[in-house]
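hey m, so remember when u said the tokens were messed up on ur end? i reran from scratch. heres the input so u can diff it against urs
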Amino acid sequence: MTSVLERPADQVERTKLGIVDCDIHNYWDSVTELFPYLSKRWQDYFETFGQRQYLGGGYPRFWSDPVDKRPPSGRRPGADVGFMSTDHLDRNNIAYGILIPLNPAARMSSLPFASAFASAINDWQVEHWLNPEPRFRASLVVANDDVPRAVAEIHRTAADKRFVQVMFSGRPHQPMGRETYWPIYEACVEHGLAVMSHAFGSSGNPITGAGWASYYIEDHVGPPQAMQANITSMVMEGVFEQFPTLRVISVENGFGWVPPLVWRMDSAYKLLHSEVPYLKRLPSEYVAEHVYFATQPVEEPEKREYFGGIFEQFPALVDRLAFSSDYPHWDGDEPARALPLLRDRELRYKVLLHNGRRLYGLA
């Protein structure tokens, strides 16, 4: 396979910087690997009561991942830092990889245990991922619905600048604009952290506005619904007026739906602006300034010109779209094949190298 780095001479200097990958999933091979970071109380709780969760479930294929991503050590895909470094970072010239452990704490109904579990994940990431591999940056895991403890965890952990964002699941218990979550955003602004919403997950809410899906394929194509609701909520409830430096990134939700969403929000605002008088600009302007989008899964219309139209319809995407691989999942994208319809070299450079650096303040 031709590497994305095998480019004409005029791009050699640019590619020396290396790619920023905004979505790499790191796992423990066994949950017992987190026990050294849990107090005896919570170890006993886990062994006695388990991870009591809201409604929802996992999918075997989703977790099993491709055979070629299983390390020689025999650990599960995504659980071997050395193999991930060589198989992904080295092979694809990844300068910075943003770790996103899919957070079971967001699905736990016991909030005190969820917060303890989140803290354990953060400490585990430092010792087993950030310390051995300097190219990694990490998502700070919190139990979003336990807001006081989430804020305390941000203050405890954020001094380590290798944590670059705070993680929300795709379907938190409430829309992300609610004032309930504002103390989390305040702490993020204080520490220079982005807010990241990753597809899937559940705090008791179904994937659709009409109820629970029957099949995996419905779940697999459904995350944009939740992210559209979260962005609308954050804009309309005044999050970006209250926190004018807050940065948000939508991960694994696609991005082709962004232009029609902002059109609809702007249209509604022009008719109903008296309901939200604290908003001083069009909703599309808040999205353009504050919200980033990760590439995976990339929309691939049959006609190439339709893909380019996404950027024409919402030009801010040129500076707000950042590459993500979703490594090591079965449906992930390698850099060489992630943007098959994106032929503009300058835009490819921004998406693969520059926009992620701007979002996370990386050199």
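this time it looks ok to me. The chain is about 40% helix and 10% strand. if urs says something different then somethings off w ur setup not the seq
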